[in-house]
TrEMBL record:
InterPro entries hit by this protein: MFS, MFS_dom, MFS_trans_sf
Keywords: Cell membrane, Membrane, Transmembrane, Transmembrane helix
UniProt key word Membrane: yes
GO terms for MF: transmembrane transporter activity
Major facilitator superfamily (MFS) profile domain span: 1-394
Keyword check for Signal: no
Localization (cell): Cell membrane
Protein's name in the database: Major facilitator superfamily (MFS) profile domain-containing protein
Membrane-topology descriptor: Multi-pass membrane protein
Transmembrane domains' residue ranges: 12-35, 41-63, 75-93, 99-118, 214-238, 250-270, 277-295, 301-322, 343-362, 368-387
Listed GO CC annotations: plasma membrane
Entry-linked PROSITE patterns: MFS
């Protein structure tokens, strides 16, 4: 049975991801509505929010390990709240520059919270509960992020732009309230060292630990493939599969259904099947999903594309829960923040490269050729999992950390 504290973490996770997703959806709509922003300015504002994941991740990992994940988890929502409050001021002043700074600050709070949460879970729970807890946390994230675009578009259209950011403020406040009485396990005692030495230690541990190296290799190829798919699917669907805009929305919803179903069942499936099965099936199902999307044509295109996106959502969600539990098991507590930060930075760094590569290939050779690249990258991800220690993992390894409560 999971401890009551996990319920507060689930609520806080939902609040933080809701605030971040609301800001992400509302940002371009607000920029167009209030600033008559050009595509370049909209891109810069969205990039300001995304850059927090690249700039803050590694130093954030050091802060988690030194300050302690519980304390940082409580502080991070306040940072998001401050950024969102500044965003409301920026909207009032019609200042796109202040808005860019505001969403960067708010996203920084999300980055730090995600790092703290992934480090805190193994300190509070026994290893046998990792998968179930991570599944519940991912379910909370999926439940609040998937409906956000529809809700925020309605708020901006029928109420006001400010209303969307007020909703984000309320979500961040929900996280603050949920964590207000959370206990504070002491941080790991570490001697003062140069930050670069701390970062190097985390990087080397990920590289030399076979399971973590397999996770990183698989995740890099998968995320490059997925963001290449994001970049090329709409041109492919419109020009080759001959789908309407409404059909495209329905096809994309297949991934949302897969993510939700995966999060709902992950706790049970991950604990009942050998890790190697899930860790190979995640990327392998993505190969099948991308192939279904590639062959989408004619009257059945909507169904094959939706089925393809379902496969890209369901099994990778199981993979995510499984690999998160693995990371928490094999990483010593004093290193967990930096290890999570290293993997997080690599993943977020490769995403724009995948999108650029997919878009460039689609522009030069057509979206069909770009989808072949997507299939190849997903296959590379499956190969990385199969040939690494992940493909030989019959059971969860012994935990490198002990629960504190």
């Amino acid at each position: 049975m999971l401890p009551p504290l996990l319920n507060r973490l689930v609520i806080a996770n939902a609040g933080m991801h809701a605030a971040d997703q609301i800001a992400l959806v509302a940002l371009p709509l607000a920029a167009v509505t209030l600033f008559s922003a050009s595509p370049a300015l909209i891109g810069a504002l969205v990039a300001a929010q995304g850059m927090a994941w690249l700039i803050v991740s590694l130093p954030g990992g050091i802060v988690v390990d030194r300050l302690g994940p519980s304390r940082l988890a409580r502080l991070a929502p306040w940072l998001s709240l401050a950024g969102l409050t500044l965003a409301l001021l920026a909207l009032t002043l019609a200042s796109p520059y202040l808005l860019g700074l505001a969403v960067f600050i708010s996203a920084t709070g999300t980055v730090l919270f995600v790092l703290a949460l992934a480090t805190l879970t193994p300190r509070l729970l026994p290893p046998t509960a990792f998968a179930k807890a991570n599944g519940r946390l991912e379910l909370a994230r999926a439940l609040v992020t998937l409906p956000a675009p529809t809700i925020i578009a309605w708020l901006i259209a029928h109420v006001s732009t400010n209303a969307a950011f007020i909703a984000a403020l309320a979500a961040a406040a929900m996280a603050i309230i949920a964590l207000s009485s959370m206990p504070d396990p002491p941080p790991s005692a570490q001697p003062p060292r140069h930050p670069l030495q701390d970062i190097r230690e985390g990087l080397l541990f990920v590289w030399h630990q076979p399971i973590l190296r397999g996770i990183l290799s698989c995740a890099l190829a998968w995320n490059a493939a997925f963001f290449a798919l994001v970049a090329v699917f709409v041109p492919f669907a419109l020009n080759i599969a001959q789908l309407s805009v409404q059909d495209i929305g329905l096809a994309l919803s297949g991934q949302g259904v897969g993510l939700l179903l995966g999060a709902l069942t992950a706790g049970t499936i991950v604990t009942r099947f050998q890790p190697r099965f899930i860790l190979i099936l995640g990327p392998l199902s993505s190969v099948a999903g991308a192939t279904l999307i590639f062959i989408s044509a004619g009257h059945s295109a909507i169904y094959t594309a939706a089925a393809g996106y379902f496969l890209v959502g369901f099994c990778p969600m199981l993979w995510l829960v499984c690999q998160t539990s693995l990371r928490q098991s094999v990483t010593p507590a004093p290193l967990l923040g930096r290890v999570n930060a290293t993997i997080q930075l690599a993943i977020y760094g490769v995403r724009p490269l995948g999108a650029l590569l997919g878009g460039a290939l689609a522009d030069r050779l057509g979206p069909g050729a770009a989808l072949v690249l997507v299939i190849a990258l997903f296959a590379l991800s499956a190969l990385a999992a199969t040939l690494s220690d992940l493909g030989r993992l019959r059971a969860m390894p012994a935990a490198a950390t002990e629960p504190l409560v």
